Fold this sequence. Notes:
Distance between the termini: 54 Å
Largest sheet: 14 strands, mixed
Radius of gyration: 25 Å
Number of helices: 10
Structural class: alpha+beta
Strand content: 25-35%
Amino acid sequence: MENFGSNTDFQLKSVKIYPSAGGNPVEIRQLINSFNYAESVLSPSLSATLEVVDSGGLLSGLPIQGGEKIVISVKTNTSEEPYDYTMLVWTIGNRYVKQTKQAYTIGLISAEGLINETTRITKALSGNPESIVVDLMKNFIKTDKEIYAEPSKFDIKFIPSRRRPFDIINSITKKSVSAQTEYTSESNNNSNKSEQQIKGSGGFFFWESKRGYNFFSVDSLCADDGSKLKSKKLDVPFWGTYVEKMGNQDDGSDDRFVIYESMFGSEINLLSSLRKGKYSSLVVFFNHSTGQYEEYVYKVKDSYDNMGHLGGQEGISLIPANQIELSDYPTRVMSMLLDHETWYNESGPASPDPKDGSTSPSKFADWQKYYASQSIARYELLKNQQCTIIIPGNAEICAGDRIDIRLINKLPGEEAKKDPYDPESSGIYLIKEVTHVYDTTSGTNGNFLTTLRLLRDSYGLKDRPSNHGAK
């Protein structure tokens, strides 16, 4: 094992580019200033950039035309074996030329990202969203990478209309519901109101990490022990505890788990939250086959206790204003057409709603009532607290993992001594995005840092009540 003196040391072992016309790979390691690798729960493809300083005419000598395979091998102090990244060239930009030298950026993407652009789906797709995702990735994208997924509560069937596989999967994520979710609906006893109440959760993420492809519900990613994820081959790692320290302070703890920097984005945006229906929305459904008209109100506070949460917050933070509870009033109105009949040929009603009296409802019913407003609210709830931290490089961390962090309490001296860590901002977060930055120009052994963009749906630590959302 290399003799690394710091947690941020690394060695760029090899950067090989394979010419499109065939032949032996070309080693370009000496031309690389930095290698930046990224993955996100919002992206179905991996991405990376190589910062190149070239005096040997690489662009004109090969030449690079796009689509070339590049294999990067990096050795760090977190593993005995090097990490290999295999990606394809999709762009060259930021080119700067001065005399015999030129600098430019090579943009890289996973091979499946380019294959997706050339693939259009024409056959009807049916079944559980989990099986549809696997079918698209294995039989159309033809990936040989692992696919980790959980089933949705409902089966679906639709005609993709020549859309690309990733576009189809993206639309499926909003229509998928965790199999553990329970739904209830209640009629309003007030004869002056027509709307009913509906509860529940919804929403999935589909993304690629270095471990493979992932298709999981927001609730499963936020579950306390991650047991819902373990049922489908993937045991999601739990990282930490990472601790923020005062400048130049050495307390003898493991420096691999230090937080160099922490930054928080906007945590409160009431106008955006209200307009998107984060707290409450009114959904109007019209079944054009039967003429049935229904109004439903969805309030996220009624379903909060049945959702998985990352923080210790006991209830959603509500919005009192001038003694009026704004969270109780629908702030987004959506109208939707229901169609249970398209894939149904029986004589009775196709509707799966018990009050419609069908003895054999359609397997491929229109489930918008159970995911439309629920998915919107769940995605927005996950943005309650967003944080970015920089830590010593750790190539094992992936998007979709969870991490436990402790941030310094910003209260005045004496109060901070009682509780050195911020009880509202510290705790468990979902890793939304990972960026590994390998900089060869810093120090003897380079500088390897990992930037994590985190988010979660609730404030505080699991072992103590939060001041937010107190009941």
